[in-house]
Amino acid sequence: MSKKYVWHNGQFIDWEDANVHVTTHALHYGSSVFEGIRAYATPDGPAVFRLTPHTKRLIDGCRIARIEQPYTSDELDSAILELIDRNGFDSAYIRPVVFRGAGALGLEGRSTPTEVYIMAMEWGRYLGNEAVEEGVDVQVSSWRRLAPDTGASLAKIGGQYINSQFITMEARDNGFVEGIGLDIYGYVSEGAGENLFLVKDGVVYTPGNWASILMGITRDTVLTLLADFGYEVRFQQIARDMLYLADELFFTGTAAEITPIRSVDRLPIGEGKPGPVCKAVQQDFFDITSGKKPDRHGWLSYARQS
Asked: Active-site positions?
C-alpha cells in the first residue's frame, strides 16, 4: 500500500498525520531544504539510487541555509530504507525535507524548531511517460537563473524554487514541456529542475558550477557514464544559439532521469529525436538501476521487503 507511513523527527507516523501548523516559518519564507531521491524495482527488491550522496547534499544544504538539524547521513539513509520497506514499495520517489517550523513570524527564523520529514510515494516520469523515449519540446525562458550573489544554487532551498516555477509555468503556458534558464550573463544555465548536456560533433558540453546550476547527482552519474564510454566532456559557457546547432541535447535529474530534448524554441535538435549519445547513456543508466547490469559503481542501496 502506497503512502502509508511518513518519517518525522525519528518516528514513523501515519501519512494522514503528517501536518504542519499555519505559522510554520517555511510556509511563509521558504526556509526549507529538500532532496529528491528515487528507488528502482530490481530482482533483489527496491534499490535506492545514490542514497548517501543525496543525504549528504541535504545536510550540506542545511549548512548553507543555516538550518540546524540533528541527523547524520547514516541515520537518514537508514530511515529512508526502512520507510520504503514499511510502505511495501517496489519503486518510489523519496522526498526528505528539513524546514523551520512553527513559531513567531519574521525573517530571522533560527529560533523556531527544526522539523525533519521523509515521505515516499509512487511517482512516474516527471516530464511525461513518453519523454524518455521520444524527447521533449522546450523553450529558452525569459526568466534568468539566480545570480551567484542572490541565491545559493548548490543547495536545494525551497524558496529558491519560485524561480523554477516561473520558468516551468511560462513554458507550459507557451505550449512547451519545460524551460531552459540562462544565467545572469546570458549563457545557458539549466532547466527549471534539470541539468543540461549538449552534444556537438561527438563532444559533450555542460555548464560548470559558475553558471548557477545545482551540482546534480544524476548529472554526476552521467559524467561517470560518459567517461566509461570514452566521450570527451567540456565544462564551459554555452551561448543560447549553440543550443540550436546542437546534434543532441538532454536533461538530467532525479525526477527527469535522462530525458532527450527534441526541439528548442520550435527548432528541431539534430534529427528531432533522441541521439546516440543520449540513448547509450540512458540504456546504461536504466540497465544499472533495474538490476539488469551489475552495479559496477556501487550506486544502489537495497531496501529488502520484510
From this structure: 156
